[in-house]
Amino acid sequence: MICDKLAQRGQKTAQSAKNWLAWSATRLEYGQIGRFGNWGTNLLRSSSVKRVFALAGLCLTLAACSVVGGKQLTTYDLSAPTNFDDISGRSNAQVLVAAPTALKSLDSEMIVVRPNASEITYFGDAQWSDRLSRVVQEKLIQTFENSGRIRSVAKPGDGVVVDYKVVTTIRAFELIDANGAQARVALSVKIINDRNGRVRASRQFSATAPANLSSSAKGVAGIDAASQAVLKDVLSWVVRVI
After folding, report:
1. Percent of the chain scored above 70 by pLDDT?
2. At the top level of CATH, which class does the domain 74-241 belong to?
3. Domain spans, the chain
4. What is the model's pTM?
């Protein structure tokens, strides 16, 4: 509770600091600082500056809460498939894998656990190695590269001329604690021709796997199994389409 209240205060203080910095930048832009001999002294005495320093102290307090107030979070990563004997075909296309999109409740470092269809909770002692969309993007790229079935795989910013873009939306990436625990991964994927912007094909992919929620490690193992199944299905489909 204390950390929650501090987090709320931190958000308000951060906004105050942001407003103050914007105000100061305006004064600098128009050269108004030099017009006031005591401007620096008055500035240091102002309540806005005090809030900035309070924010720094508050950040340290919140960092302490993450260690002292609870367990140290265990960080997990997903694994990309390495066995592709059941996938045939090969593509000579160059493909760009865009960063997936997802709802805010999914696209974080927290691992989603659903007690029921309408409620979302998270593992309290575990987190992903990065924001979920970045993890999924990296595993898609690794899957394509590991397979050797696609000529070249890139991501935005690589400066590669590509033939197709693979655009993904994360629909589900979670553990379900109802009617028998299971892991569920669902992706919506589009293949877009990069030359004309037309959607070449689109498809929904999903997979489930048994899960054990007695520990975060066992729960993540279930998600990893479902994720690998979906990643291989996406690869097989992309190779056939392009």
Report:
1. 71
2. alpha beta
3. 2-68, 74-241
4. 0.71
